[in-house]
Request: fold
Amino acid sequence: MNKKILTVLIAIFLINFSLSLYIQIKDSQSLPICGINIASSCNQVTESSYSTVLGIKNTTIGIVVFPLLAIFMLVYYKIRKKYLKSIGSLILACSAIFALRLIYIQFFVLREICKFCIIIDTLTILSFLIFYYSKDR
Reply:
């Protein structure tokens, strides 16, 4: 993985962290997330039964996981051990599968779309593809 790829991945994780934090703050204040009223699609998505895993809000998971992924990428960039590439690929693959599940739920189960959630999920999938297919140098 070269420095450009590292920079892109860290930028993705920072964007995802920021969006997760934004959603969490708006949601905790019962404010509209991406619209002018509380009945917007974003609020419908973030208040659905699919917005938690084992009682933990998806946004809370993002606030914790995305900075950890950025730190992991920095460690991997410095050390460049094959086992770290495998661990990173596994973590990001699980994250991408979870993101695909959330996209499916928005489009086909809830039939409500949260633009910020879609951005987070799309960037998560993209981060897996970038990391998995990046060459070690």
